[in-house]
């Protein structure tokens, strides 16, 4: 996208409500449902039921209506991840950064997902969750363990977050907006001007 197109898209973003569909992927227990709850300000819960299948949640943040697919991380559902990410402007991958036993599987599943040609070039946001836990990795160690430094074929952004303490949850919204400016032709405009929302 040229600089002119990027500026135009930024301006459009200021003036119009936009709709963005995103899918949250990652192993079971990573905190995907907890993240959607945090972004939606519904509060934190210790006992969330595992997600079975895929559920859509709509969350409006300023001028963007996010349609968030909350996917199951269980092994039987992982083959469906590609289909859910395919037409998204960004891939959001959530990892339990304190669960060192499952980090390798999470890395393997992420790299397997990214190897799909249908997902070529789609920007990636990796979120290391549960940084409130004493055993959680630092960002540097997490980046290394997840092999993120090996990814050179797309924009990659990584944050350490805690859905429990709401740490860096605002950064998620910001990162998604920044990453997707690069692919903003995939955004669909809603024709109600936000200036008239007041
Ligand atoms: N300590 C801590 N626990 C968290 C955090 N986020 C989520 N959890 C807990 O981790 C567990 C799993 O969270 P979920 O959001 O259900 O995980 P999920 O990724 O949606 O899992 P599936 O639906 O099975 O794929 C729950 O008990 C949450 O309370 C966090 O930031 N810190
Ligand atoms: Mg869930």
From TrEMBL:
<comment type="similarity">
    <text>Belongs to the small GTPase superfamily. Arf family.</text>
</comment>
<feature type="binding site">
    <location>
        <begin position="129"/>
        <end position="132"/>
    </location>
    <ligand>
        <name>GTP</name>
    </ligand>
</feature>
<dbReference type="GO" id="GO:0005525">
    <property type="term" value="F:GTP binding"/>
</dbReference>
<feature type="binding site">
    <location>
        <position position="33"/>
    </location>
    <ligand>
        <name>Mg(2+)</name>
    </ligand>
</feature>
<dbReference type="InterPro" id="IPR044154">
    <property type="entry name" value="Arl8a/8b"/>
</dbReference>
<dbReference type="GO" id="GO:0046872">
    <property type="term" value="F:metal ion binding"/>
</dbReference>
<dbReference type="Pfam" id="PF00025">
    <property type="entry name" value="Arf"/>
</dbReference>
<dbReference type="InterPro" id="IPR006689">
    <property type="entry name" value="Small_GTPase_ARF/SAR"/>
</dbReference>
<dbReference type="InterPro" id="IPR005225">
    <property type="entry name" value="Small_GTP-bd"/>
</dbReference>
<keyword id="KW-0479">Metal-binding</keyword>
<keyword id="KW-0547">Nucleotide-binding</keyword>
<dbReference type="GO" id="GO:0003924">
    <property type="term" value="F:GTPase activity"/>
</dbReference>
<dbReference type="InterPro" id="IPR027417">
    <property type="entry name" value="P-loop_NTPase"/>
</dbReference>
<feature type="binding site">
    <location>
        <position position="51"/>
    </location>
    <ligand>
        <name>Mg(2+)</name>
    </ligand>
</feature>
<protein>
    <submittedName>
        <fullName>Uncharacterized protein</fullName>
    </submittedName>
</protein>
<keyword id="KW-0460">Magnesium</keyword>
<dbReference type="GO" id="GO:0015031">
    <property type="term" value="P:protein transport"/>
</dbReference>
<keyword id="KW-0342">GTP-binding</keyword>
<feature type="binding site">
    <location>
        <begin position="26"/>
        <end position="33"/>
    </location>
    <ligand>
        <name>GTP</name>
    </ligand>
</feature>
<feature type="binding site">
    <location>
        <position position="73"/>
    </location>
    <ligand>
        <name>GTP</name>
    </ligand>
</feature>
């Amino acid at each position: 996208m040229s600089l002119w197109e990027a500026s135009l898209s930024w301006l459009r973003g200021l003036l119009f409500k936009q709709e963005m569909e995103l899918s949250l992927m990652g192993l079971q227990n990573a905190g995907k449902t907890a993240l959607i709850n945090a972004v939606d300000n519904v509060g934190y819960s210790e006992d969330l039921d595992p997600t079975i299948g895929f559920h859509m949640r709509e969350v409006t943040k300023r001028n963007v209506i996010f349609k968030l697919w909350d996917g199951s991380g269980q092994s039987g559902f992982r083959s469906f991840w590609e289909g859910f990410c395919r037409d998204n402007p960004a891939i959001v991958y959530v990892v339990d950064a304190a669960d060192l036993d499952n980090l390798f599987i999470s890395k393997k599943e992420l790299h397997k997902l990214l190897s799909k040609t249908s997902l070529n070039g789609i920007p990636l946001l990796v979120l290391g969750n549960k940084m409130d836990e004493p055993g959680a990795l630092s960002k540097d160690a997490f980046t290394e363990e997840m092999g993120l430094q090996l990814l050179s074929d797309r924009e990659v952004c990584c944050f350490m977050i805690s859905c429990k303490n709401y740490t860096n949850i605002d950064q998620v919204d910001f990162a998604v907006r920044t990453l997707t400016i690069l692919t903003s032709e995939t955004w669909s405009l809603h024709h109600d001007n936000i200036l008239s929302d007041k």
